[in-house]
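Lecture 7 notes: from sequence to structure.
We start with the chain below.
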Amino acid sequence: MTPTPQLPLRCWAEIDLAALERNLRLIRASLPAHIRYVAVVKADAYGHGLHQTAARLMHAGADLFAVANLSEAAALRELGPGWPILVLSPLLPEEDRYAAEYDVAVTVSTPEEVARLEAAARAAGRPIDVHLKIDTGMGRLGIWHEQAVPLYQQIRDTRHLRLAGAFTHFASPDDNPAFTAEQRRRFLTALGRCAGLDLASLFVHADNSAGIETIETAGPFNAVRVGLLQFGVLPHPNSLLAQVRTEPVFSFHTRVGLVKDLPAGTGISYGGTYVLKRPSRVAVLTAGYGDGLPRAASNRAQVLIRGRRCPVLGRVTMDQTIVDVTDLPGVTCGDPVVLVGRQGEGEIPVAEFSRWADTIPWETLCSVTKRVPRLYRTSLGL
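Predicted structure tokens for the same chain:
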């Protein structure tokens, strides 16, 4: 059987693993020495690829990996035993037994979860690590902070569970520092009421990439959860780490599939939501919302061709996007196009790309679809 040839790329993402490692080292150097690095790699490492990015973060010295669910934990465990993994979301009852099998720590928020996991650990004949999640105002996971003591006591009284961490989640760290401070106070108060709690032996974490600006170094906190920041995306410009020059790890590329001239008055794409005001030359790109270019960015986004910005005209379609190249002579079929990233002197950051679609970088990165191949760059190239 003839092997499938390596076809030319029409739309792809490039992941710079060397930049990822440099980012981790920069972030770690900017934190107090006792703060441990929790690498958040959920949602396929925010679309960057779980195995490839986690392997590089292991090499760079991450202390703990945080994932969303057991399936992600199992995939991460394939890289090898020993690396600490925390599942951030609640387990389904039928998943409990796998916590011991895959040697992962589990987030607990309710007495029912503690009882289930104790039974699963007893049946497996090996302990299960748990992190106590305390709800300080997010209203999602975690035991309500005023009810944390009985749950802590229940965990302490089990024979087969080991308390490995305690944490909370800030609801508005980027735009409500007063409430973030109140959440921190509630968390510390709840921990202080847990008699016999040896905080020094636990991962105690509340801060993530968006909340690092308010991190306290004198209290019991000894770990931070780093997600988007390690991929070179600053959650907001007022962060304490805004001065840390992390590098973008992700870039998004496509190509020109067709160039054509159209008369003034022509409606562009479905619904004719853009009408040409002058005779124009347009380029049809080989990427659309089926690849991760949001439909919401229609008539708003820009792309880079030959280092210059070209506006998107009309609605983004599933497989193609139309841009105006009237003022950019010489554009031809096959030319490379940058949707996110640098080209020549031009740059489109993922944050700007996200604003065009009325969304956030987290969603943008997670929305690049499976049909978009990821190409991994190391210090030696692709």
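Points to note: The radius of gyration is 24 Å. The longest strand covers residues 250-262.
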